[in-house]
Amino acid sequence: MSWFRSLALLPVASVLLGPFVGNRVAPLVLGMPFLLAWMSLTLVLTSVVMAIVYRLDPANAGPEHAVGE
Amino acid sequence: MNISIVLIFFTIALVLWLGLRAQRGKDMNLEQWTVGGRGFGTAIVFLLMAGEIYTTFVFLGGSGYAYGHGGPAYYMLGYGSLCFILSYWLLPPIWRYAQQRKLVSQPDFFAAKYDSPALGILVAVVGAVALIPYLVLQLRGLGIIVSVASYSVISSTQGTVIGALVITAYVMVSGIHGSAWTSVLKDILVMGVAIFLGLYLPFHYYGGIGHMFEAIEQAKPGFLALPAKGESAVWMVSTILLSTLGFYMWPHMFMASFSAKGERGLRKNAFVLPIYQLMLLFIFFVGFAAVLQVPGLKGADIDLALFKISMATFDPWVVGLIGAAGVLTAIVPGSMILMAAATLVANNIYGPLRARSSQIRIISVARLMAPAVMGVALWFTLQGGQTIVALLLMAYSLVTQLFPVLLASLLRVNPVTKVAAFASILVGEAAVAVLSLNKLSVATLFPFLPDALKDLNVGMVALTLNVLTLIVVSALTRAPRHAGPRLQQQQG
Asked: 3-class DSSP state for residue B262?
């Protein structure tokens, strides 16, 4: 697996560990309970990481492969 | 007639007009009706897939689950992260394979990959059975929305029937094109309503989002975190995993991915959709705002939380706008579900059984199946019963059983035989049926397990049995001498 693809493991680990290590209400983060903020920020992390993966993936370089192998 | 009803019926009429108009200029053959002629750009594919995020499951179920369960509702954010990451690598090879062979449905894919029309029929039956509770969920939500937002002038049953007729009409005429057009209207209105309510209600009642959570924590300590037992961290992670594996196993999600013009658009969605999923936060805020303002909703009534607090806060015209957005969250996803179910029955059950059926005949049958499937869903809806989230979790368990067989088919050399694929799906679905009908949990099945594991989502049991069957039956039915040609055949 290319190094940039392994970046996708970061949000995966965050989702799977969050309920165990972040299961509390205080302190409020961004005005939200700690666990809710954790899961929300993980969604943001997912978007950022997948945007990086998309940009660096050679499969997305060159002309688009359209209908009509 | 109050302003709220006028707004709701105007929206329903607009959806019907858009849905019927969508077929203009299209030669509505099977490929156009089901996958839009594989000509949808990134934006429309995005909306069709994002449509899955904003269904009544979120609008009523998400706010209701936050209201009734608190912390465990956060699982909906968790599976958003995982399933969009999975989609980056899962959907492009599926799209490529389907595009090469002009496949139009999920069972087509399984039948082609395993060179087994019988497996296609089994997958079609599983898909149709799983789509019924999903359609029931949308209709149930629709009935609640129309009834409550019209201040009970229209009954829940009347609202459900009107919505069902509208969905059926434009699915029969326009197929996926109707869903694509109405998705645009739906997402604009729903996002606006979700953000407005999610910000206005906490500030109106508590002076801010942070103050709202502080007040809830003071009144109900621990409600905003996961409990130590029941819907614990173990339950949450196992539910997230099951929902992730099931997300793209829905027949209509397969069709949405088939409709893409190219595979790059599918990959782009992997980083755009997580931000879209973040809008769930605002829906949660509405449910949490209702916790201390409209206390006392129990059982299936927790799904009413969003409307109860809206009616206590706003004038009828605002409630009408919220109701209009809610109606769209039921009608648009409902149309995708109905179209997928009708296609499965016509193309993958009727078609193989009537070998000489032409494409024209199959699309005619598909159009006729739409009202038949809707009739079945309507009957179940009017029986009443479970909460919206409970309905969806059961349906998810059914489609998740297809994932191991799908994953194996995408490997360079598929180690799974067609007999094993058939057996594992049957075992998985039978396990889901037994577990659901008897309301069994991991704790009741395995009382000797450590407490932490007793909270595992019971769907994991069915999936484990499924995978074990896959491994054992593949080992027993593999024919080493002929493995080469068979494997090549499976790879197509």
From this structure: strand
- What lies within 8 Å, CB to CB, of B247 at 6+ separation is B52, B79, B83, B86, B87, B253
Return all residues near B66 (Cβ < 8 A) that are at least 6 apart.
B73, B283, B284, B286, B287, B288, B305
Local confidence pLDDT in tens for the 492 residues of chain B: 567 888 887 888 887 777 776 665 655 566 666 666 666 676 777 666 676 566 777 788 899 989 998 999 999 899 889 988 999 989 999 988 997 887 878 898 999 999 898 999 899 989 988 888 888 878 878 888 888 888 888 888 888 898 898 888 878 877 766 777 677 778 888 879 999 999 999 999 999 999 999 899 989 899 999 998 788 999 999 999 988 988 888 887 887 888 787 888 888 888 888 987 887 889 999 999 999 998 888 787 888 898 889 989 998 889 998 999 888 888 888 887 887 888 888 877 877 776 656 667 677 888 788 899 899 888 778 766 556 667 666 787 888 899 999 999 998 788 898 899 989 999 998 998 888 777 788 888 888 888 788 888 888 899 999 999 999 999 988 665 444 444 444 444
In a domain, B396, yes or no: no
Interchain CB contact of B210 with A (< 8 Å): yes
Last residue of a domain, one of B388, B421, B445: B388
Instruction: Compute chain A's Rg from CA coordinates.
Output: 17
B222 touches chain A (CB under 8 A): yes
Domain span at B303: 3-388
Whether B490 and B373 map to the same domain: the answer is no
Taking the C-alpha atoms of residue B478 and residue B430, their distance in angstroms, rounded to an integer, is: 24
The residue in chain A having the minimum alpha-carbon distance to the alpha carbon of residue B202 is A31
- Cβ–Cβ of B275/A44 closer than 8 Å? yes
Residue B253 lies in a domain: yes
8 Å CB contact of A28 and B222: no
Question: B375 and B408 share a domain?
Answer: no
Q: Are B252 and B344 in contact (CB under 8 A)?
A: no
Domain edge (last residue) among B361, B388, B415: B388
User: What total of structural domains would you count in chain B?
Assistant: 2
A27 prior amide bond cis, ω within 30: yes
Cα distance between residue B72 and residue B223, in whole Å? 9
The answer to whether B262 contacts A64, with C-beta atoms less than 8 Å apart, is yes
> Does the distance separating the beta carbons of B275 and A32 come in below 8 Å?
no
Same domain, B265 and B232: yes
Mention every residue, 6+ apart, whose C-beta is less than 8 A from residue B7.
Answer: B317, B320, B321, B323, B324
Domain CATH number, residue B98? 1.20.1730.10
> Which amino acid type is present at position B419?
V
> What three-state secondary structure class fits A66?
strand
Chain B residues with CB under 8 Å of A67 CB are 38-39, 99, 261-262
Put simply, whether B227 touches A (Cβ < 8 Å) is no
Residue B435 lies in a domain: yes
